[in-house]
Amino acid sequence: MVIYPHPDDESFGAAGTITKFREEGVPVTYLCGTLGEMGRNMGSPTFANRETLPEIRKEELINACEALDIELQMLGYRDKTLEFEDRQMVANHLKGLLEDINPSLVITHYPEHAVHPDHNALGAAAIEAVRLMDEDKRPVVWVQAITNNYDEELGKPDVRNDVTAYFDQKMKAIVAHKSQADGILGKFRENSEITADIEEAAKQRLGTEQFYIWNY
Length: 216
Prior knowledge:
By secondary structure, this protein is α/β, with parallel strands linked by helices. The protein has one domain (2-213): 3-Layer(aba) Sandwich (Rossmann fold), CATH 3.40.50. Helices cover 47% and strands 14% of the residues. The protein contains 8 helices and 7 strands, in the order E-H-E-H-E-H-E-H-E-H-E-H-H-H-E. The chain has helices at residues 9-23, 53-68, 87-101, 117-132, 150-154, 167-176, 178-190, 195-206; strands spanning 2-4, 29-32, 71-74, 105-109, 140-144, 159-162, 208-213. Helix 1 packs across helix 6, helix 2 (53-68) runs antiparallel to helix 6 and helix 3 (87-101) packs across helix 4 (117-132). It is globular and about 45 Å long.
């Protein structure tokens, strides 16, 4: 099970790892916290506004999950408000879903090391949800840190997945999130003159997915 707050978190953060699991026949469910409806990125060039963005991002999310061949459940929280939600209520919500789906592994964000308040809040709620479960039924929890100095503060991640073998599939999922991906991929193009250089730059940035194992 993957628990992130926004459409595209799963693709940028864990699509290679997800693809590896799917190729091994492991089912994967994505619990997506919000529709990212308060995001500032309206496409490049602009093709959305505040009224249309939620439906666009929902469609992109569905397309990305189809590309990754994973189940999708949308949790229905509001973008940029997860930090203000009652942490225990969110944790109980997630606990119910965890007990229904019974995953062996949960992937989420590392609280306070995930840059965005929504990332930190939902990661903390997911960790709490697993803690609330019976100890003998708890899944393993992998947490993803994305702050610039996480390795200095936390040490080296416990899990380091080289996902370059699954890079094409990861890029398909990323590109499905067109409203968000165009701007980020544009940064690679700005620093690369030919397609091969763009692909290499993207692989350097996105070709490794790293996680810490949360200890209870």
